[in-house]
């Protein structure tokens, strides 16, 4: 079986210890086969600091399955990371980027089943010259091969309780209306419909689309974006056979009864849909990137510098990310 390629993320954060914790739980039902990607010495040091009895073994990816029962298999990537717990340093960004690069190489070569990424800290990356808004956009850049344009990446926050997609992501609220367009909503909706069919096995996903304004604009009396931008996008998606519905007021879309009537929500901006998603599934939500030619998931939390090394980090979201990656990697993307 091909392992999942799990990056260690920000070396000073909780990613390395979550990786160690999950390997220690490997005999628990539901823990998938994975290989860590990053600096083996960092994991050895972190295991010692946490008092975790986790043997760490550097290996090649095709040796991971055989090793997994007795040692945490690690695929070396980049130079040694020297950051201390909770204190990123000049090696942090390089270590995080090298691990992402190597994990993507492994999945593109077919040696790994999917990429699972531990959290990074954008501010640390930006200081080191990282020019992408985040993981999502960088992965799309890496996915471009043989001169092809980078795919349009779509952020899905998924849990059994609720799945949501923000059309605009890390955009200031004041800039959202200018960034929204009918074409962007249509493109996002197409990717969601396609990947739900090819990855999740839902042939015709029910997509509920949020309005931008309170009460979805109240017929234009509270802003006209919903009538001029959002509604035309929904009509175009429906004309293509995609089950897109709305626009719906966001304030009535996330209660238990409403959630029975759709598979995924398309929201117009980040907090509109991530607040309900994290309220319902804070400890086990998963960030998955749709639109890529390979599967990528991540825990839906940050680096948590304040608790790094305390043993208080909760591996539930990382476990859910590994489980979803394994599930999605069992299908093939649409050609």
Number of strands: 12
Helix percent band: 25-40%
CATH architecture of the largest domain: 3-Layer(aba) Sandwich
**Low-confidence spans:** none
- Name given to the CATH homologous superfamily of the largest domain: Isopropylmalate Dehydrogenase
Structural class of the secondary structure composition? alpha/beta
Count the DSSP helices: 12
| Secondary-structure element order, N to C | EHEHEHEHEHHEEHHEHEHEHEEH
Give the number of domains.
2
Largest sheet: 12 strands, mixed
Strand content range: 15-25%
Which fold name corresponds to the CATH topology of the largest domain? Answer: Isopropylmalate Dehydrogenase
Written overview of the protein:
There is one protein chain. This protein is an alpha/beta fold and 335 residues long. It folds into two domains: 1-153 and 292-335, Isopropylmalate Dehydrogenase, CATH 3.40.718; 160-283, 3-Layer(aba) Sandwich (Isopropylmalate Dehydrogenase), CATH 3.40.718.10. The protein contains twelve helices and twelve strands. The chain has helices spanning 15-24, 40-50, 64-67, 92-108, 122-127, 135-143, 176-179, 182-198, 225-239, 256-259, 270-281, 316-328; strands spanning 4-7, 34-38, 56-58, 72-76, 115-117, 154-158, 163-166, 207-210, 244-248, 264-267, 286-290, 296-299. Strands 3-4-2-1-5-12-11-6-7-10-8-9 form a twelve-stranded mixed beta sheet, with helices on both faces. Helix 8 (182-198) runs parallel beside helix 9. The longest helix has 17 residues, at 92-108. The model has no long low-confidence stretch (mean pLDDT 94).
């Amino acid at each position: 079986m091909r392992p999942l390629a799990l990056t260690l993320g920000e070396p000073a954060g909780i990613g390395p210890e979550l990786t160690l914790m999950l390997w220690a739980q490997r005999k628990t039902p539901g823990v998938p086969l994975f290989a860590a990607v990053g600096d083996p010495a960092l994991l050895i040091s972190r295991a010692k600091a946490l008092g975790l009895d986790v043997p760490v073994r550097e290996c090649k990816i095709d040796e991971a399955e055989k090793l997994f029962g007795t040692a945490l298999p690690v695929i070396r990537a980049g130079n040694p990371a020297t950051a201390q717990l909770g204190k990123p340093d000049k090696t942090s960004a390089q270590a995080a980027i090298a691990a992402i690069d190597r994990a993507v190489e492994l999945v593109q070569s077919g040696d790994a089943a999917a990429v699972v990424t531990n959290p990074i800290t954008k501010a640390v990356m930006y200081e080191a010259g990282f020019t992408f808004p985040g993981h999502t956009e960088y992965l799309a850049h890496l996915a471009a091969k043989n001169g092809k344009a980078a795919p349009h990446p779509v952020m899905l926050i998924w849990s059994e309780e609720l799945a949501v997609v923000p059309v605009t992501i890390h955009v200031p609220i004041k800039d959202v209306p200018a960034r929204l367009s009918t074409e962007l909503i249509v493109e996002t909706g197409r990717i969601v419909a396609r990947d739900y069919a090819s990855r999740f096995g839902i042939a015709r996903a029910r997509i509920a689309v949020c309005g931008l304004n309170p009460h979805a604009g109240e017929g234009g009396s509270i802003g006209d974006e919903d009538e001029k931008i959002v509604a035309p996008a929904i009509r175009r998606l429906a004309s293509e056979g995609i089950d897109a519905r709305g626009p719906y007021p966001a304030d009535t879309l996330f209660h238990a009864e409403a959630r029975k009537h759709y598979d995924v929500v398309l929201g117009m901006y980040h907090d509109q849909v991530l607040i309900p998603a994290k309220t319902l599934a804070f400890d086990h939500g998963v960030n998955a990137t749709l639109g890529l030619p390979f599967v990528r998931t991540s825990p839906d939390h940050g680096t948590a510098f304040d608790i790094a090394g305390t043993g208080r980090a909760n591996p539930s979201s990382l476990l859910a990310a590994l489980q979803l990656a394994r599930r999605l990697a069992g299908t093939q993307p649409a050609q």
